Amino acid sequence: MFLCPLDAGQTFQRYIHQVLSNLDFCVPYFDDVLIASNNSEEHKQHLKQVFERLSQHGLKLNPLKCVLGKSSVKFLGCLISSEGVKPLPEKVQAISQFPKPQNIAELKRFLAMLNFYRRFLPNAADTQASLHEFLKNSKKNDKLNLFLTDVTWQLSKNAKLTLLMQLL
Protein backbone atom coordinates (compact mmCIF):
# COMPACT_ATOMS: atom_id res chain seq x y z
CA MET A 1 0.00 0.00 0.00
CA PHE A 2 1.29 3.45 -0.95
CA LEU A 3 0.80 6.45 1.26
CA CYS A 4 0.97 10.04 0.19
CA PRO A 5 0.14 13.15 2.16
CA LEU A 6 -3.13 14.59 0.92
CA ASP A 7 -2.23 18.03 2.13
CA ALA A 8 1.15 18.26 0.37
CA GLY A 9 0.08 21.40 -1.50
CA GLN A 10 -0.97 23.09 1.71
CA THR A 11 2.23 22.04 3.43
CA PHE A 12 4.37 23.43 0.60
CA GLN A 13 2.33 26.65 0.51
CA ARG A 14 2.86 27.13 4.24
CA TYR A 15 6.58 26.35 3.89
CA ILE A 16 7.22 28.72 0.97
CA HIS A 17 5.26 31.42 2.80
CA GLN A 18 7.52 30.98 5.85
CA VAL A 19 10.67 30.98 3.72
CA LEU A 20 9.72 34.26 2.06
CA SER A 21 8.21 35.91 5.12
CA ASN A 22 9.41 39.45 5.85
CA LEU A 23 9.91 40.11 2.13
CA ASP A 24 7.02 42.54 1.70
CA PHE A 25 7.52 42.77 -2.06
CA CYS A 26 6.96 39.01 -2.46
CA VAL A 27 3.67 37.17 -2.94
CA PRO A 28 4.13 33.39 -2.86
CA TYR A 29 1.31 31.24 -4.22
CA PHE A 30 2.07 27.52 -4.25
CA ASP A 31 5.00 27.20 -6.67
CA ASP A 32 4.66 30.73 -8.04
CA VAL A 33 6.31 33.78 -6.53
CA LEU A 34 5.30 37.27 -7.63
CA ILE A 35 7.80 40.03 -6.95
CA ALA A 36 6.60 43.64 -7.14
CA SER A 37 9.21 46.37 -7.63
CA ASN A 38 9.06 50.06 -8.49
CA ASN A 39 11.91 50.02 -11.02
CA SER A 40 14.49 47.71 -12.61
CA GLU A 41 17.24 48.44 -10.06
CA GLU A 42 14.95 47.68 -7.17
CA HIS A 43 13.75 44.57 -9.00
CA LYS A 44 17.33 43.28 -9.29
CA GLN A 45 17.78 43.75 -5.54
CA HIS A 46 14.49 42.02 -4.82
CA LEU A 47 15.43 39.09 -7.07
CA LYS A 48 18.77 38.77 -5.32
CA GLN A 49 17.09 38.65 -1.91
CA VAL A 50 14.57 36.04 -3.05
CA PHE A 51 17.23 33.86 -4.72
CA GLU A 52 19.40 34.01 -1.59
CA ARG A 53 16.48 33.13 0.67
CA LEU A 54 15.45 30.18 -1.52
CA SER A 55 19.06 28.98 -1.69
CA GLN A 56 19.43 29.16 2.10
CA HIS A 57 16.50 26.76 2.39
CA GLY A 58 17.74 24.39 -0.31
CA LEU A 59 15.04 25.35 -2.80
CA LYS A 60 15.87 25.47 -6.49
CA LEU A 61 14.20 27.19 -9.40
CA ASN A 62 13.69 25.92 -12.92
CA PRO A 63 15.12 28.76 -15.08
CA LEU A 64 12.97 27.68 -18.03
CA LYS A 65 9.83 28.39 -16.02
CA CYS A 66 10.97 31.74 -14.59
CA VAL A 67 9.60 34.99 -16.00
CA LEU A 68 11.74 37.92 -14.87
CA GLY A 69 11.54 41.68 -15.27
CA LYS A 70 8.05 41.91 -16.77
CA SER A 71 5.92 45.00 -16.21
CA SER A 72 2.74 42.90 -16.27
CA VAL A 73 1.92 39.23 -15.77
CA LYS A 74 -1.06 36.97 -16.26
CA PHE A 75 -1.77 35.31 -12.94
CA LEU A 76 -4.79 33.36 -11.74
CA GLY A 77 -7.03 34.66 -14.51
CA CYS A 78 -6.04 38.29 -14.03
CA LEU A 79 -3.61 40.75 -15.55
CA ILE A 80 -1.42 42.25 -12.82
CA SER A 81 0.57 45.41 -13.55
CA SER A 82 1.57 48.71 -11.96
CA GLU A 83 -1.93 49.92 -12.86
CA GLY A 84 -3.50 47.26 -10.65
CA VAL A 85 -5.41 44.05 -11.25
CA LYS A 86 -7.71 43.65 -14.26
CA PRO A 87 -9.58 40.75 -15.81
CA LEU A 88 -7.86 39.06 -18.75
CA PRO A 89 -9.05 40.59 -22.05
CA GLU A 90 -9.57 37.19 -23.70
CA LYS A 91 -11.75 36.00 -20.81
CA VAL A 92 -13.82 39.19 -20.88
CA GLN A 93 -14.25 38.74 -24.62
CA ALA A 94 -15.51 35.19 -24.06
CA ILE A 95 -18.04 36.50 -21.52
CA SER A 96 -19.13 39.39 -23.73
CA GLN A 97 -19.70 37.06 -26.69
CA PHE A 98 -21.50 34.40 -24.67
CA PRO A 99 -24.83 33.71 -26.38
CA LYS A 100 -28.15 33.86 -24.58
CA PRO A 101 -28.40 30.62 -22.56
CA GLN A 102 -30.99 28.17 -23.85
CA ASN A 103 -31.03 25.81 -20.86
CA ILE A 104 -30.11 25.59 -17.18
CA ALA A 105 -26.67 24.05 -17.87
CA GLU A 106 -25.71 26.94 -20.18
CA LEU A 107 -26.97 29.47 -17.63
CA LYS A 108 -24.85 27.85 -14.91
CA ARG A 109 -21.83 28.02 -17.20
CA PHE A 110 -22.44 31.71 -17.91
CA LEU A 111 -22.93 32.56 -14.22
CA ALA A 112 -19.75 30.67 -13.32
CA MET A 113 -17.80 32.77 -15.82
CA LEU A 114 -19.31 35.97 -14.41
CA ASN A 115 -18.72 34.93 -10.81
CA PHE A 116 -15.03 34.37 -11.46
CA TYR A 117 -14.74 38.11 -12.12
CA ARG A 118 -17.35 39.28 -9.60
CA ARG A 119 -14.76 41.42 -7.79
CA PHE A 120 -14.72 43.68 -10.87
CA LEU A 121 -18.53 43.91 -11.01
CA PRO A 122 -20.16 46.38 -8.63
CA ASN A 123 -23.39 44.99 -7.16
CA ALA A 124 -22.76 41.60 -8.76
CA ALA A 125 -25.28 39.81 -6.56
CA ASP A 126 -28.05 42.29 -7.39
CA THR A 127 -27.22 42.22 -11.09
CA GLN A 128 -27.32 38.43 -11.26
CA ALA A 129 -30.27 37.87 -8.90
CA SER A 130 -32.85 37.56 -11.68
CA LEU A 131 -30.70 34.97 -13.46
CA HIS A 132 -30.24 32.99 -10.24
CA GLU A 133 -34.02 32.74 -9.92
CA PHE A 134 -33.96 30.32 -12.85
CA LEU A 135 -31.67 28.00 -10.88
CA LYS A 136 -34.11 27.41 -8.04
CA ASN A 137 -35.12 23.74 -7.89
CA SER A 138 -32.79 22.85 -10.76
CA LYS A 139 -30.73 19.69 -10.73
CA LYS A 140 -26.98 19.27 -11.26
CA ASN A 141 -26.89 18.63 -15.04
CA ASP A 142 -30.30 20.02 -15.83
CA LYS A 143 -30.90 20.55 -19.55
CA LEU A 144 -34.34 22.06 -18.97
CA ASN A 145 -35.03 24.77 -21.54
CA LEU A 146 -34.98 28.39 -20.40
CA PHE A 147 -37.21 31.21 -21.41
CA LEU A 148 -35.20 34.31 -20.53
CA THR A 149 -36.99 37.57 -21.09
CA ASP A 150 -35.19 40.31 -22.94
CA VAL A 151 -35.18 42.38 -19.74
CA THR A 152 -33.50 39.59 -17.77
CA TRP A 153 -30.86 39.01 -20.43
CA GLN A 154 -30.26 42.78 -20.66
CA LEU A 155 -29.22 42.75 -16.99
CA SER A 156 -26.48 40.26 -17.77
CA LYS A 157 -25.42 42.36 -20.75
CA ASN A 158 -24.91 45.24 -18.31
CA ALA A 159 -22.54 43.02 -16.32
CA LYS A 160 -20.69 42.20 -19.54
CA LEU A 161 -20.33 45.91 -20.34
CA THR A 162 -19.04 46.63 -16.84
CA LEU A 163 -16.34 43.99 -17.31
CA LEU A 164 -15.40 45.44 -20.70
CA MET A 165 -15.10 48.90 -19.14
CA GLN A 166 -12.61 47.47 -16.62
CA LEU A 167 -10.21 46.84 -19.50
CA LEU A 168 -10.15 50.46 -20.61
UniProtKB/TrEMBL annotation:
<dbReference type="InterPro" id="IPR000477">
    <property type="entry name" value="RT_dom"/>
</dbReference>
<dbReference type="InterPro" id="IPR043128">
    <property type="entry name" value="Rev_trsase/Diguanyl_cyclase"/>
</dbReference>
<dbReference type="InterPro" id="IPR043502">
    <property type="entry name" value="DNA/RNA_pol_sf"/>
</dbReference>
<feature type="domain" description="Reverse transcriptase">
    <location>
        <begin position="1"/>
        <end position="80"/>
    </location>
</feature>
<protein>
    <submittedName>
        <fullName>Transposon Ty3-I Gag-Pol polyprotein</fullName>
    </submittedName>
</protein>
<dbReference type="Pfam" id="PF00078">
    <property type="entry name" value="RVT_1"/>
</dbReference>
<dbReference type="InterPro" id="IPR051320">
    <property type="entry name" value="Viral_Replic_Matur_Polypro"/>
</dbReference>
<dbReference type="GO" id="GO:0071897">
    <property type="term" value="P:DNA biosynthetic process"/>
</dbReference>
